[in-house]
Specification:
With 415 residues, this protein is α/β, with parallel strands linked by helices. Helices cover 40% and strands 15% of the residues. It folds into 3 domains: 109 residues, Rossmann fold; 61 residues; 180 residues, P-loop containing nucleotide triphosphate hydrolases (Rossmann fold), CATH 3.40.50.
Length: 415
Protein backbone atom coordinates (compact mmCIF):
# COMPACT_ATOMS: atom_id res chain seq x y z
CA UNK A 1 0.00 0.00 0.00
CA UNK A 2 2.99 2.32 0.45
CA UNK A 3 3.14 3.19 -3.22
CA UNK A 4 -0.34 4.79 -2.97
CA UNK A 5 0.61 7.05 -0.05
CA UNK A 6 1.76 10.39 -1.41
CA UNK A 7 3.13 13.24 0.64
CA UNK A 8 0.80 16.26 0.63
CA UNK A 9 2.28 19.10 -1.39
CA UNK A 10 2.30 22.59 0.08
CA UNK A 11 0.38 25.21 -1.90
CA UNK A 12 2.54 27.58 -3.90
CA UNK A 13 2.05 31.33 -3.77
CA UNK A 14 3.03 34.44 -5.70
CA UNK A 15 3.39 37.68 -3.71
CA UNK A 16 2.47 41.12 -5.07
CA UNK A 17 3.16 44.62 -3.65
CA UNK A 18 3.45 48.23 -4.78
CA UNK A 19 6.37 50.66 -4.53
CA UNK A 20 4.95 54.15 -4.00
CA UNK A 21 6.06 57.55 -2.71
CA UNK A 22 4.83 56.59 0.76
CA UNK A 23 6.43 53.11 0.60
CA UNK A 24 9.90 52.96 -0.95
CA UNK A 25 11.60 49.84 -2.31
CA UNK A 26 13.35 48.95 0.95
CA UNK A 27 10.11 49.13 2.94
CA UNK A 28 8.22 47.17 0.27
CA UNK A 29 10.87 44.42 0.46
CA UNK A 30 10.47 44.26 4.26
CA UNK A 31 6.67 44.07 3.92
CA UNK A 32 7.04 41.26 1.37
CA UNK A 33 9.43 39.41 3.72
CA UNK A 34 6.74 39.62 6.39
CA UNK A 35 4.04 38.57 3.91
CA UNK A 36 6.18 35.56 2.93
CA UNK A 37 6.50 34.66 6.64
CA UNK A 38 2.70 34.93 6.96
CA UNK A 39 2.24 32.67 3.91
CA UNK A 40 4.70 30.16 5.39
CA UNK A 41 2.82 30.22 8.69
CA UNK A 42 -0.42 29.49 6.80
CA UNK A 43 1.27 26.55 5.01
CA UNK A 44 2.14 28.05 1.60
CA UNK A 45 5.50 28.20 -0.20
CA UNK A 46 6.40 31.43 -2.01
CA UNK A 47 7.79 30.88 -5.52
CA UNK A 48 7.91 34.42 -6.96
CA UNK A 49 7.49 38.09 -6.02
CA UNK A 50 6.15 40.88 -8.22
CA UNK A 51 6.40 44.63 -7.50
CA UNK A 52 5.26 47.66 -9.45
CA UNK A 53 6.23 51.32 -9.12
CA UNK A 54 3.21 53.63 -9.24
CA UNK A 55 1.53 56.54 -7.45
CA UNK A 56 -0.98 54.25 -5.74
CA UNK A 57 -3.18 51.17 -6.20
CA UNK A 58 -5.48 51.07 -9.22
CA UNK A 59 -9.09 51.23 -8.00
CA UNK A 60 -10.18 48.56 -10.52
CA UNK A 61 -7.33 46.03 -10.70
CA UNK A 62 -4.87 47.23 -7.97
CA UNK A 63 -2.01 46.80 -10.51
CA UNK A 64 -1.58 48.22 -13.98
CA UNK A 65 -2.73 46.14 -16.95
CA UNK A 66 0.83 45.36 -18.06
CA UNK A 67 1.92 44.01 -14.67
CA UNK A 68 -1.29 41.97 -14.32
CA UNK A 69 -0.65 40.47 -17.78
CA UNK A 70 2.95 39.66 -16.73
CA UNK A 71 1.68 37.75 -13.67
CA UNK A 72 -0.93 35.92 -15.79
CA UNK A 73 1.75 34.89 -18.28
CA UNK A 74 3.99 33.63 -15.47
CA UNK A 75 1.14 31.51 -14.02
CA UNK A 76 0.40 30.00 -17.46
CA UNK A 77 4.09 29.25 -18.06
CA UNK A 78 4.34 27.51 -14.69
CA UNK A 79 1.25 25.43 -15.45
CA UNK A 80 2.75 24.33 -18.78
CA UNK A 81 5.87 23.24 -16.86
CA UNK A 82 3.60 21.29 -14.44
CA UNK A 83 4.38 23.69 -11.58
CA UNK A 84 0.93 24.93 -10.68
CA UNK A 85 0.63 28.26 -8.83
CA UNK A 86 -2.00 27.85 -6.11
CA UNK A 87 -2.65 31.48 -5.20
CA UNK A 88 -1.63 35.10 -5.61
CA UNK A 89 -1.34 37.10 -2.36
CA UNK A 90 -1.49 40.91 -2.34
CA UNK A 91 0.19 42.91 0.44
CA UNK A 92 -2.72 45.35 0.82
CA UNK A 93 -6.41 44.86 1.47
CA UNK A 94 -8.39 44.51 -1.77
CA UNK A 95 -11.90 45.78 -2.42
CA UNK A 96 -14.67 43.54 -3.80
CA UNK A 97 -14.29 45.13 -7.25
CA UNK A 98 -10.50 44.59 -7.28
CA UNK A 99 -10.88 40.96 -6.16
CA UNK A 100 -13.47 40.23 -8.83
CA UNK A 101 -11.44 41.80 -11.65
CA UNK A 102 -8.12 40.24 -10.63
CA UNK A 103 -9.71 36.77 -10.32
CA UNK A 104 -11.27 37.13 -13.78
CA UNK A 105 -7.85 37.97 -15.22
CA UNK A 106 -5.57 35.52 -13.36
CA UNK A 107 -8.05 32.63 -12.83
CA UNK A 108 -6.40 31.45 -9.58
CA UNK A 109 -7.19 31.93 -5.88
CA UNK A 110 -6.65 35.55 -4.83
CA UNK A 111 -5.89 36.52 -1.23
CA UNK A 112 -4.98 39.82 0.38
CA UNK A 113 -3.04 40.46 3.59
CA UNK A 114 -6.21 40.60 5.71
CA UNK A 115 -7.68 37.31 4.46
CA UNK A 116 -4.29 35.62 4.99
CA UNK A 117 -4.10 36.86 8.59
CA UNK A 118 -7.69 35.71 9.18
CA UNK A 119 -6.79 32.27 7.82
CA UNK A 120 -3.89 32.01 10.30
CA UNK A 121 -6.15 33.21 13.12
CA UNK A 122 -8.69 30.50 12.24
CA UNK A 123 -5.91 27.89 12.23
CA UNK A 124 -4.50 29.05 15.61
CA UNK A 125 -7.79 29.55 17.48
CA UNK A 126 -8.21 26.94 20.22
CA UNK A 127 -10.72 28.23 22.78
CA UNK A 128 -14.39 29.09 22.26
CA UNK A 129 -13.55 32.76 22.83
CA UNK A 130 -10.86 32.87 20.12
CA UNK A 131 -12.97 30.85 17.65
CA UNK A 132 -15.94 33.20 18.14
CA UNK A 133 -13.78 36.29 17.64
CA UNK A 134 -12.18 34.84 14.50
CA UNK A 135 -15.57 33.92 13.03
CA UNK A 136 -16.90 37.43 13.68
CA UNK A 137 -13.82 38.97 12.04
CA UNK A 138 -14.24 36.67 9.02
CA UNK A 139 -17.88 37.67 8.56
CA UNK A 140 -16.97 41.36 8.88
CA UNK A 141 -14.41 40.88 6.12
CA UNK A 142 -16.78 38.81 3.96
CA UNK A 143 -19.87 41.04 4.17
CA UNK A 144 -18.81 43.81 1.72
CA UNK A 145 -17.33 41.14 -0.62
CA UNK A 146 -20.43 38.94 -0.95
CA UNK A 147 -21.16 40.15 -4.46
CA UNK A 148 -17.87 38.61 -5.66
CA UNK A 149 -18.88 35.23 -4.20
CA UNK A 150 -22.39 35.15 -5.65
CA UNK A 151 -22.23 36.88 -9.04
CA UNK A 152 -24.03 33.89 -10.62
CA UNK A 153 -26.97 34.24 -8.21
CA UNK A 154 -27.81 37.92 -8.57
CA UNK A 155 -31.12 37.24 -10.37
CA UNK A 156 -34.34 37.17 -8.39
CA UNK A 157 -34.98 33.88 -6.61
CA UNK A 158 -38.77 34.03 -7.01
CA UNK A 159 -41.54 35.59 -9.08
CA UNK A 160 -45.26 36.29 -9.02
CA UNK A 161 -46.36 35.21 -12.51
CA UNK A 162 -48.12 32.02 -13.56
CA UNK A 163 -45.41 30.83 -15.92
CA UNK A 164 -42.70 32.79 -14.19
CA UNK A 165 -40.18 32.23 -16.93
CA UNK A 166 -37.23 29.90 -17.18
CA UNK A 167 -36.14 28.30 -13.91
CA UNK A 168 -38.92 29.76 -11.76
CA UNK A 169 -40.57 26.49 -10.67
CA UNK A 170 -40.03 25.96 -6.94
CA UNK A 171 -38.51 29.41 -6.60
CA UNK A 172 -41.64 31.58 -6.38
CA UNK A 173 -41.55 33.72 -3.28
CA UNK A 174 -40.92 37.20 -2.03
CA UNK A 175 -38.46 37.94 -4.81
CA UNK A 176 -35.42 38.02 -2.54
CA UNK A 177 -32.09 37.49 -4.30
CA UNK A 178 -29.56 34.94 -3.04
CA UNK A 179 -27.20 37.82 -2.35
CA UNK A 180 -29.75 39.56 -0.09
CA UNK A 181 -30.54 36.29 1.68
CA UNK A 182 -26.87 35.61 2.41
CA UNK A 183 -26.34 39.16 3.61
CA UNK A 184 -29.28 38.80 5.99
CA UNK A 185 -28.03 35.39 7.24
CA UNK A 186 -24.55 36.80 7.88
CA UNK A 187 -25.90 39.87 9.71
CA UNK A 188 -28.01 37.60 11.93
CA UNK A 189 -25.00 35.37 12.57
CA UNK A 190 -22.84 38.39 13.43
CA UNK A 191 -25.47 39.59 15.88
CA UNK A 192 -25.47 36.15 17.55
CA UNK A 193 -21.64 36.10 17.72
CA UNK A 194 -21.60 39.57 19.32
CA UNK A 195 -24.04 38.32 21.98
CA UNK A 196 -21.78 35.32 22.65
CA UNK A 197 -18.74 37.56 22.93
CA UNK A 198 -20.59 39.85 25.36
CA UNK A 199 -21.42 36.77 27.45
CA UNK A 200 -17.79 35.57 27.38
CA UNK A 201 -16.72 39.12 28.25
CA UNK A 202 -18.90 39.05 31.38
CA UNK A 203 -17.43 35.68 32.38
CA UNK A 204 -13.88 36.99 31.87
CA UNK A 205 -14.66 40.10 33.93
CA UNK A 206 -15.91 37.89 36.77
CA UNK A 207 -12.75 35.77 36.54
CA UNK A 208 -10.56 38.88 36.70
CA UNK A 209 -12.43 40.13 39.78
CA UNK A 210 -11.67 36.82 41.56
CA UNK A 211 -7.92 37.08 41.09
CA UNK A 212 -7.36 38.79 44.43
CA UNK A 213 -5.18 41.74 45.19
CA UNK A 214 -2.45 41.11 42.68
CA UNK A 215 -0.77 43.50 40.26
CA UNK A 216 -1.53 42.63 36.62
CA UNK A 217 1.31 42.76 34.10
CA UNK A 218 0.68 42.33 30.35
CA UNK A 219 3.30 41.31 27.77
CA UNK A 220 2.67 43.29 24.58
CA UNK A 221 4.60 43.58 21.34
CA UNK A 222 4.82 42.79 17.66
CA UNK A 223 4.10 39.21 16.64
CA UNK A 224 7.00 36.73 16.94
CA UNK A 225 9.20 38.83 19.28
CA UNK A 226 9.43 36.14 21.99
CA UNK A 227 6.59 36.97 24.42
CA UNK A 228 5.53 33.33 24.91
CA UNK A 229 9.15 32.23 25.45
CA UNK A 230 9.52 34.96 28.06
CA UNK A 231 6.35 34.01 29.98
CA UNK A 232 7.51 30.38 29.99
CA UNK A 233 10.84 31.50 31.42
CA UNK A 234 9.38 33.73 34.14
CA UNK A 235 6.45 31.52 35.18
CA UNK A 236 8.06 28.10 34.50
CA UNK A 237 4.98 27.12 32.48
CA UNK A 238 4.45 25.49 29.07
CA UNK A 239 2.74 28.17 26.95
CA UNK A 240 2.90 27.24 23.24
CA UNK A 241 5.82 29.06 21.59
CA UNK A 242 6.96 28.70 17.98
CA UNK A 243 9.00 30.71 15.47
CA UNK A 244 5.89 31.60 13.46
CA UNK A 245 3.58 34.60 13.34
CA UNK A 246 0.57 34.59 15.70
CA UNK A 247 1.70 31.46 17.56
CA UNK A 248 -0.32 32.83 20.51
CA UNK A 249 -3.92 33.87 19.83
CA UNK A 250 -5.57 33.27 23.19
CA UNK A 251 -4.58 35.37 26.18
CA UNK A 252 -2.73 33.26 28.73
CA UNK A 253 -2.45 34.40 32.35
CA UNK A 254 0.08 32.90 34.77
CA UNK A 255 0.87 33.65 38.42
CA UNK A 256 4.54 34.55 38.86
CA UNK A 257 6.46 34.97 42.11
CA UNK A 258 9.72 36.93 42.20
CA UNK A 259 11.37 36.81 45.63
CA UNK A 260 8.45 37.53 48.00
CA UNK A 261 6.24 39.29 45.41
CA UNK A 262 3.40 37.44 43.58
CA UNK A 263 1.80 39.02 40.49
CA UNK A 264 -0.18 38.00 37.37
CA UNK A 265 1.56 37.93 33.98
CA UNK A 266 -0.55 37.85 30.77
CA UNK A 267 0.69 36.82 27.31
CA UNK A 268 -1.40 38.61 24.65
CA UNK A 269 -1.88 38.31 20.88
CA UNK A 270 0.90 39.99 18.89
CA UNK A 271 0.34 43.07 16.74
CA UNK A 272 1.28 43.44 13.08
CA UNK A 273 1.49 46.15 10.41
CA UNK A 274 -1.57 46.93 8.30
CA UNK A 275 -3.88 45.20 10.80
CA UNK A 276 -7.46 46.23 9.86
CA UNK A 277 -9.58 48.07 12.42
CA UNK A 278 -12.33 45.42 12.13
CA UNK A 279 -9.85 42.79 13.27
CA UNK A 280 -8.81 44.85 16.30
CA UNK A 281 -12.50 45.44 17.13
CA UNK A 282 -13.21 41.70 16.98
CA UNK A 283 -10.36 40.98 19.41
CA UNK A 284 -11.33 43.65 21.94
CA UNK A 285 -12.16 41.07 24.64
CA UNK A 286 -8.82 39.28 24.12
CA UNK A 287 -7.07 42.62 24.56
CA UNK A 288 -8.98 43.40 27.77
CA UNK A 289 -6.02 41.98 29.71
CA UNK A 290 -3.93 44.74 28.17
CA UNK A 291 -6.48 47.45 28.99
CA UNK A 292 -6.95 46.32 32.59
CA UNK A 293 -3.27 45.71 33.37
CA UNK A 294 -1.30 47.86 35.83
CA UNK A 295 2.00 47.56 33.94
CA UNK A 296 2.82 46.92 30.28
CA UNK A 297 5.98 45.01 29.34
CA UNK A 298 6.70 45.95 25.73
CA UNK A 299 8.84 43.18 24.17
CA UNK A 300 10.88 44.16 21.09
CA UNK A 301 12.89 41.93 18.72
CA UNK A 302 16.11 43.99 18.58
CA UNK A 303 17.58 41.61 15.96
CA UNK A 304 14.87 42.56 13.43
CA UNK A 305 16.17 45.10 10.85
CA UNK A 306 13.00 47.20 11.19
CA UNK A 307 12.33 46.91 14.93
CA UNK A 308 11.86 50.68 15.35
CA UNK A 309 8.85 50.68 13.00
CA UNK A 310 7.49 47.62 14.81
CA UNK A 311 7.67 49.61 18.06
CA UNK A 312 5.69 52.42 16.42
CA UNK A 313 3.02 49.93 15.26
CA UNK A 314 2.65 48.60 18.83
CA UNK A 315 2.54 52.12 20.31
CA UNK A 316 -0.18 53.14 17.81
CA UNK A 317 -2.26 50.02 18.57
CA UNK A 318 -1.90 50.64 22.32
CA UNK A 319 -3.04 54.24 21.78
CA UNK A 320 -6.10 52.94 19.84
CA UNK A 321 -6.89 50.70 22.82
CA UNK A 322 -6.52 53.61 25.27
CA UNK A 323 -3.44 52.11 26.95
CA UNK A 324 -0.80 54.64 25.90
CA UNK A 325 -0.59 56.25 29.35
CA UNK A 326 0.04 53.04 31.30
CA UNK A 327 3.48 52.57 32.90
CA UNK A 328 5.81 50.56 30.68
CA UNK A 329 8.98 48.51 30.73
CA UNK A 330 10.69 48.01 27.37
CA UNK A 331 12.53 44.71 26.86
CA UNK A 332 14.81 44.41 23.84
CA UNK A 333 14.83 40.65 23.31
CA UNK A 334 16.94 38.41 21.02
CA UNK A 335 20.18 40.31 21.65
CA UNK A 336 22.01 37.03 20.89
CA UNK A 337 20.65 37.17 17.31
CA UNK A 338 21.68 40.81 16.69
CA UNK A 339 24.03 41.18 13.70
CA UNK A 340 25.90 44.17 12.26
CA UNK A 341 28.27 44.86 9.36
CA UNK A 342 31.43 46.87 9.95
CA UNK A 343 31.62 49.86 7.64
CA UNK A 344 34.48 50.05 5.16
CA UNK A 345 36.85 52.93 6.15
CA UNK A 346 36.84 54.11 2.51
CA UNK A 347 33.03 54.22 2.40
CA UNK A 348 32.08 57.90 2.86
CA UNK A 349 28.31 57.36 2.87
CA UNK A 350 26.49 57.95 6.21
CA UNK A 351 26.44 54.95 8.56
CA UNK A 352 23.12 53.10 8.88
CA UNK A 353 21.76 51.01 11.76
CA UNK A 354 23.20 47.89 10.09
CA UNK A 355 26.69 49.36 10.69
CA UNK A 356 26.22 49.96 14.44
CA UNK A 357 27.29 47.32 16.99
CA UNK A 358 24.86 46.53 19.81
CA UNK A 359 27.01 48.21 22.49
CA UNK A 360 26.88 51.52 20.61
CA UNK A 361 23.16 51.09 19.84
CA UNK A 362 22.44 50.81 23.57
CA UNK A 363 23.96 54.28 24.08
CA UNK A 364 21.79 55.99 21.43
CA UNK A 365 18.12 57.01 21.77
CA UNK A 366 17.41 53.82 23.70
CA UNK A 367 19.37 55.14 26.69
CA UNK A 368 17.00 58.14 26.83
CA UNK A 369 13.75 56.18 26.78
CA UNK A 370 11.27 57.11 29.53
CA UNK A 371 10.88 54.36 32.12
CA UNK A 372 12.93 51.21 32.38
CA UNK A 373 14.69 49.54 29.46
CA UNK A 374 16.75 46.34 29.35
CA UNK A 375 18.43 44.09 26.76
CA UNK A 376 17.99 40.33 27.16
CA UNK A 377 17.97 37.01 25.36
CA UNK A 378 15.12 34.80 26.59
CA UNK A 379 16.42 31.81 24.63
CA UNK A 380 20.02 32.07 25.89
CA UNK A 381 18.98 33.25 29.41
CA UNK A 382 21.04 36.44 29.11
CA UNK A 383 20.32 39.26 31.66
CA UNK A 384 17.30 37.37 33.04
CA UNK A 385 18.26 38.01 36.68
CA UNK A 386 18.58 41.74 35.93
CA UNK A 387 15.11 41.58 34.34
CA UNK A 388 13.69 39.88 37.45
CA UNK A 389 15.18 42.63 39.66
CA UNK A 390 13.71 45.35 37.42
CA UNK A 391 10.26 43.71 37.43
CA UNK A 392 10.40 43.26 41.21
CA UNK A 393 11.22 46.94 41.80
CA UNK A 394 8.51 48.30 39.46
CA UNK A 395 5.77 45.86 40.49
CA UNK A 396 6.46 46.32 44.23
CA UNK A 397 6.10 50.10 43.79
CA UNK A 398 2.76 49.62 42.03
CA UNK A 399 1.61 47.07 44.61
CA UNK A 400 2.30 49.38 47.57
CA UNK A 401 0.53 52.27 45.80
CA UNK A 402 -2.55 50.25 44.84
CA UNK A 403 -2.87 48.11 48.00
CA UNK A 404 -1.23 50.14 50.82
CA UNK A 405 -2.84 48.05 53.58
CA UNK A 406 -2.47 44.68 51.87
CA UNK A 407 -0.24 42.21 53.73
CA UNK A 408 -0.16 39.86 50.72
CA UNK A 409 3.59 40.39 50.38
CA UNK A 410 4.81 37.54 52.55
CA UNK A 411 7.87 37.94 54.76
CA UNK A 412 11.15 36.15 54.20
CA UNK A 413 11.76 33.25 56.56
CA UNK A 414 14.94 34.86 57.87
CA UNK A 415 12.98 37.99 58.80
Amino acid sequence: MKEFIQEAKAETAVLVALITKQQDERKTTEYLDELEFLAETAGAVTVRRFTQRCDGPNSVTYLGKGKLEEIRQYIEDEEESEREVGMVIFDDELSAKQLRNIEAQLKVKILDRTSLILDIFAMRAQTANAKTQVELAQYRYMLPRLQRLWTHLERQGGGSGGGGGKGSVGLRGPGETQLEMDRRIILNRMSLLKQRLAEIDRQKTTQRQNRGRLIRVALVGYTNVGKSTLINLLSKSEVFAENKLFATLDTTVRKVIIDNLPFLLADTVGFIRKLPTDLVDSFKSTLDETRESDLLVHVVDVSHPDFEEQMQVVDKTLADLGCADKPQIIIFNKMDAYTWTEKDPNDLTPATRENVPLDELMQTWMAKLPGDCIFISARERQNIEELRDMLYTRIRQLHVQKYPYNDFLFQHYEE
